[in-house]
Design brief:
single chain, alpha/beta, Rossmann fold, eight-stranded mixed sheet, 6 helices, 8 strands, globular, Dienelactn_hydro, hydrolase
Length: 253
């Protein structure tokens, strides 16, 4: 049975509270670093770590808000996230602190590293890859993207998956494809999935103020504009991530 636990570590002047999930046994295990969406580390990313552990991956869902979750507080979330997205060195330092925690886990195979990120967390793991962290693959779901050139990505070593919704105003299909062309010019193996009718954070199930699911697709708590849950595309995006990772491990033809 997989083992899950909280791990605390220091980064960005804060005490971060991540979620570590490990497969049974002693390893060696391939490892996945997970970056949460701008709202904060919630149960969805924790479950992704747990799911990966059940498939034989050691997984750490990092924290970059010092244990805070900004559900229902979009203004506070933006005040935290936007300065972070404007500071590449800060993003890389936050990501490296979490990666160091993951690599220090006994049984982790440092030669088989992967990354998965949502929203701002997608940007953080992409910045780590750009800095030369040798991920075998990076999956970024509606990441925060910037204008870049092919020269920025010469240190990237692995394949890249980009996912977004056709109706996402914060990570548009046009932005994803433009970024894909930059990766292509840099010689990177990349692919992109655009999910028809999906909005931003389409995997985030709406909840009530006490955290329980509403059972619908419309958020009742305040969010940034353009956010919407899409129950059909949520598992499709997750399956695309698993397919990428398994492919790079040679688990599938």
């Amino acid at each position: 049975m997989s083992a899950m636990r909280e791990v605390t570590y220091d980064a960005d002047g804060l005490t971060m509270v991540g979620h570590l999930a490990l497969p049974p046994g002693e390893g060696p295990w391939p490892a996945v670093l997970i970056g949460h969406d701008g709202i904060g580390l919630d149960d969805y990313q924790r479950r992704r770590a747990d799911d990966l552990a059940s498939r034989g991956y050691a997984a750490l869902a990092m924290d970059y808000h010092g244990g805070q979750v900004f559900t229902g507080r979009p203004e506070a979330m933006l005040a935290r996230v936007m300065p972070l997205l404007a500071d590449v060195e800060r993003m890389q330092a936050i990501g490296r602190a979490a990666l160091d925690v993951l690599l220090a886990v006994p049984g982790v195979d440092a030669g088989k590293l992967f990354a998965l990120g949502y929203g701002a967390g997608g940007r953080i793991v992409l910045e780590l890859a750009r800095a030369g962290v040798p991920f075998k693959a990076v999956a970024a779901v509606h990441p925060g993207l910037q204008d870049v050139t092919a020269e920025d990505w010469t240190n990237l070593t692995g394949a890249v998956l980009l996912c977004t919704g056709s109706e996402d105003p914060l990570c548009t299909p046009e932005q994803v494809l433009a970024f894909g062309r930059v990766l292509q010019d840099a010689g990177i193996d990349w692919r992109a999935n655009v999910y028809g009718g999906a909005k931003h954070a389409f995997w985030a199930q709406p909840t009530t103020s006490d955290g329980s699911p509403t059972g619908g697709t419309t958020h009742t708590e305040p969010t940034v504009p353009g956010v919407g849950y899409h129950p059909r595309h949520t598992p499709r995006a997750w399956n695309a991530v698993l397919e990428l990772f398994d492919e790079e491990l040679g688990r599938r033809n």
